[in-house]
Amino acid sequence: RWPGVVSRGSESDALLDLVDIPATLADVVGSEIPEAFEDSFSFAHVLQGKPPQEPARPFVIHNCPHTGDFAIQQGPWKLVLIKEKAPELYNLEQDRAETKNVAAKHGEIVKKLQRLFDTCRARSTRDLVADQTNVSFIPKSN
């Protein structure tokens, strides 16, 4: 709740990420965020009841315990990139559970999202392709 701005029980379909919280809080209080938050974009307009805008950047998901797998989402489309497998494409408006891979039917969208991912990876200041181990999520053996 945010009295006078956000109504109780408000909902939104906006595509947001936790990384956007610093930019949003800075926007709300009228402050600047450090350059280190290069991937943070404000969603204050959504909190203020305005319709979601096209994301300022594509939504990249990195699932990296040992695999280095990625997904990139833009609009209703999600392209899943798994090492040593063909890309998978899902239309999340029609298939939220990601059960119907439609990559074969939508080759141009696969190519577009692959190029977009390659561009994001090339301009990132962080290494998006290094194998990484997230120690917090490695199951403990008994």
Question: What labels would you give this structure?
Answer:
about 140 residues; Arylsulfatase, C-terminal domain; 2 domains; about 15% strand; alpha+beta; four-stranded antiparallel beta sheet; globular; single chain
Give the assembly state of these chains.
single chain
Distance between the termini: 43 Å
Q: What's the SSE pattern?
A: HHEEEEH
| Large-scale geometry | globular
Question: What is the CATH first-level class name of the largest domain?
Answer: Alpha Beta
| Approximate strand percentage | 5-15%
> Which structural class should the secondary elements be placed in?
alpha+beta
Percentage of residues assigned to helices:
10-25%
- Unreliable runs: none
Second CATH tier, the architecture of the largest domain: 2-Layer Sandwich
CATH names the topology of the largest domain as Arylsulfatase, C-terminal domain
Average pLDDT works out at: 80
User: Measured on Cα atoms, how large is the radius of gyration?
Assistant: 18 Å
How many discrete domains?
2
Q: Number of DSSP helices?
A: 3
Strand order of the largest sheet: 1-2-3-4
Largest sheet composition: 4 strands, antiparallel
Write down how many β-strands occur, each being a DSSP E stretch of 2 or more residues: 4
Task: Describe this protein's structure.
This protein is an alpha+beta fold. It has two domains: 1-57, no CATH class; 59-123, Arylsulfatase, C-terminal domain (2-Layer Sandwich). The chain is 21% helix and 14% strand. It is built from three helices and four strands; from the N terminus they run H-H-E-E-E-E-H. A four-stranded antiparallel sheet has the order 1-2-3-4, with helices on one face. A hairpin with a 5-residue loop joins strand 1 (59-63) and strand 2 (69-74). The protein is globular, with a radius of gyration of 18 Å. The chain starts with 20 loop residues before the first helix and ends in a 19-residue tail after the last helix.
